[in-house]
């Protein structure tokens, strides 16, 4: 049987100390109505921390950019109500002894609806630097230099809020 002591031992990186090396990878759940994490979301993450997950990486959280998300139930990481919801999540995870960090997200150039079906270009706000797929087909809105700069700024604002 392998020695699991290292997995269960604390780990420190600069100012971050986690109680063990068990890490939960991000898994999008779409359980945040209107993009705002609820008490149910806080309870979900708290249960993971209380059962031994040392570091939780949240599901994808949309940055403050119009084309960042394609689902109204995926949590946002901008605006007062969403950030207040995340504060509750963080407080619950910390109370259970865990640590948590957001996965900051922008869906970018997303030409399908998840079921493999193409979504009409006029029916969405997806964006990418070129708007083109790998094969050269236009599947998203091309971004201007100012839109790229705004997207970078949206990630920076979300990181600062984290």
UniProtKB/TrEMBL annotation:
Annotated transmembrane regions: none
Tell me one Pfam family matched here: Oxidored_FMN
Highest taxon of source:
Bacteria
Extract one GO cellular component term from the record. Answer: cytosol
Molecular function per GO: FMN binding; oxidoreductase activity
Instruction: Indicate the segments forming the NADH:flavin oxidoreductase/NADH oxidase N-terminal domain, all copies.
Output: 7-161
Q: Which PANTHER family does UniProt cross-reference here?
A: NADH OXIDOREDUCTASE-RELATED, OXIDOREDUCTASE-RELATED
- Name of this protein: 1,2-oxophytodienoate reductase
Annotated organism of origin? Caballeronia grimmiae
């Amino acid at each position: 049987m392998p020695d699991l002591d290292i997995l269960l031992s604390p780990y420190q990186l600069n100012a971050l100390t986690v109680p063990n090396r068990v890490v939960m990878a991000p898994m999008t759940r779409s359980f945040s109505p209107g993009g705002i994490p609820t008490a149910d979301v806080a309870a979900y993450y708290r249960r993971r921390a209380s059962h031994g997950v040392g570091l939780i990486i949240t599901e994808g959280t949309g940055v403050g950019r119009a084309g960042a998300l394609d689902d109204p139930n995926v949590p946002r990481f901008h605006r007062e109500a969403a950030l207040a919801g995340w504060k509750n999540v963080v407080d619950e995870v910390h109370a259970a002894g865990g640590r948590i960090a957001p996965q900051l997200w922008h869906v970018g150039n997303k030409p399908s609806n998840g079921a493999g079906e193409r979504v009409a270009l006029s029916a969405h706000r997806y964006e990418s630097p070129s708007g083109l797929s790998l094969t050269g087909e236009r599947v998203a809105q091309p971004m201007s230099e100012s839109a790229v700069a705004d997207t970078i700024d949206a990630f920076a604002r979300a990181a600062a809020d984290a």
